[in-house]
Uroporphyrinogen decarboxylase
Amino acid sequence: MPQFAPLKNDTFLRALLRQPTEYTPVWLMRQAGRYLPEYRATRARAGSFLGLAKNPDYATEVTLQPLDRYPLDASILFSDILTVPDAMGLGLYFADGEGPKFERPLRTESDVMALQVPDMASLDYVFKAVTQIRTEINGRVPLIGFSGSPWTLACYMVEGQGSREFHTIKKMLYARPDLMHRILDINATAVAQYLNAQIDAGAQAVMIFDSWGGALADGAYQEFSLRYMERVLSRLQREKDGVRIPAIVFTKGGGIWLDEMADIGADALGLDWTVNLGRARALVGDRVALQGNLDPAILFASPEQIRAEVERSLTAYGVPAAGSGHVFNLGHGISQFTPPESVTAMVEAVHNFSRRQRAV
Ligand SMILES: Cc1c2[nH]c(c1CCC(=O)O)Cc1[nH]c(c(CCC(=O)O)c1C)Cc1[nH]c(c(CCC(=O)O)c1C)Cc1[nH]c(c(C)c1CCC(=O)O)C2
């Protein structure tokens, strides 16, 4: 087991565990990415996104880039949720200018029957990256590990790519729920093993991205997404060397199910921008901390407007009292067209205003 430097800034972890903080910690989903010129330069050297993500040296380099530019309170492993179905043999690739695709999506009953939990050794490049990042971060801020939710991974595995309507997977869900449940059962086992291996490698918190849970009908969400995230959480090691490893669950479009989400064993729930933070806080009470939820499009506005929206969001949450916690973030990933200076304005506004809020 590698020895890591002691943590200098644990504000993010304390907020997730609903302990008092001097200010509201902040990080951004997709904080390492194409909006940063230094990321584009490393990606050009690596040749491709997968060349970058599968090489621990490059993955470490780009994970640290946003931390060198902004006083962020957390770092997130540079990787992708689709590494898991790739390890299952589905053949992940990125066509130029398009999103992710699979060469061998799950379309027939025999495809589904042949699916297996991958050998975690085939994802060793991810765990190596986690350890290397944690080492090079040298205790500056905590490192978040992550995975897709069983349902969101299944969306890509069955559709073979991103989708607007999810016709193929929804047809399977309603016509052959037995096949759907088999995929989700395998995914839940794979995701739990994958996150536990990231924790062993040095991840100090984990996040489950349920990017497409919000595409499901009420009832279907609970049966096909929520229940499987609950199963993943129940299998996670929640303590490492005597320290709690908090788990964050983010269902995009899941605002209507927050009450149920608060009871599945997560430490914190991620929110998209459709939710009012004050109302969400009242609803979940002291069951979970909240993370979110600025509309990423606000980063296209002026620094003054960004500041005003940050203050509105922090005011909506209010000052965290004992038993509550707020981590500032966007409501979804940052756009590749975001001016980097907008992030400077956002992070500054979060730190300054949240300190002032606590001072009164
Ligand atoms: C659905 C999903 C994916 N990947 C991910 C999700 C869940 C979060 C969400 O809902 O956005 C998660 C993800 N993907 C990436 C991260 C890195 C960590 C971070 O900085 O937050 C994380 C946490 C890097 C990435 N993953 C990807 C990029 C862009 C690739 C590039 O450099 O060309 C990055 C930085 C590729 C990717 N990977 C995926 C898509 C849809 C795309 C294309 C996105 C686009 O073109 O904007 C699948």
Remarks:
- Residues 273 and 295 are 5 Å apart (CA to CA).
- The pocket of coproporphyrinogen III is lined by residues 29-34, 43, 49, 76, 78, 80-82, 99-100, 146, 162, 209, 211, 252, 333, 336 (CB under 6 Å).
- The chain is about 45% helix and 10% strand.
- The mean pLDDT is 97.
